[in-house]
What does this fold into?
Amino acid sequence: MSSPILQRLALQMFWPTSDPFLFCAFHNDLYPSANHDMTPAASLNNRPLGQDFAGIDGWRMYHGKRIPGFPGHPHRGFETVTVVNKGFVDHADSMGAAGRYGQGDTQWMTAGEGIQHSEMFPLLSEEEKNPLELFQIWLNLPSKNKMAPPHFSMLWNEETPTVSVTDANGIDTCVKVIAGRYQDAVPLPAPPHSWAADVQNDVAIWLIDVPEHAEWLLPAATAGLSRTLYFYEGEQVALANFVASVNEAFVLKSDVDVLIHNQGKRAKFLLLQGKPIGEQVEQQGPFVMNTRMELQQAFADYRRTEFGGWPWPKQDQTHDKCAGRFAQYADGTIEQPEVD
It folds into this structure.
């Protein structure tokens, strides 16, 4: 029987992806305790502020100069799906939308015809370290939707379905379903113009938590999908009878079951799956279009309109330290998760 593994790849900060996905970054930073203003309670003197990606002392300021993160910047032609396992993100954008999310929440933003946003990482604890763990996934838009109106939505952790699957030994594996139905779990709706909004495109974004000694079967989907399994925490597992090590990605046949048998410590995976869009991709920096001419138009439009401008007092906009998790939409509606 042939292997279901088509390719195995080493993982760095930026992970390899396939159509319809464009990019996946894994941010895993053990930030120190904070000052009262949510900045790191540590010296920043030896860091290349504005471009700090080296991971000095296990954390990065990225493009931030006071608070870690990514100050205001534009996008056009695709979507960002930001899944935060630990820590918090403060969002602000050119539509006037804002929010603080984290601790299991997902933000799904359709850049569409153009948007500016900032993603800052406020450090809220002054007594303990402030770990941050998140995935940012770029999901392409088909040509017909590249100029769709921008859209911002929150998938709160409390509302995101999870499925526990018990193996023959009585051990439960947990699957968190951000996109793509799994068993009876129906995900929260994707934005209306997303490639994931059509179930026929078989887009799946799952987080899979396999305890020690557990077995879990990744079920077959339809043939011809892009399907990549990222092993980002743990030691080693048996993956379809092959030994898989942490910090590896596995490009899989999409129409074959794949058994994971974990004999090491708890193992965690991200699954990205979807029907390829199959269109030409022209990308430069924050813009993803189908032709070079469309890219040139994107830059020209941004210079002319700034995609609505920046309505916030700071490019590295953060919210009140005591704000809690919230979403403020462009129409002024404010939403908070329902916490038990």
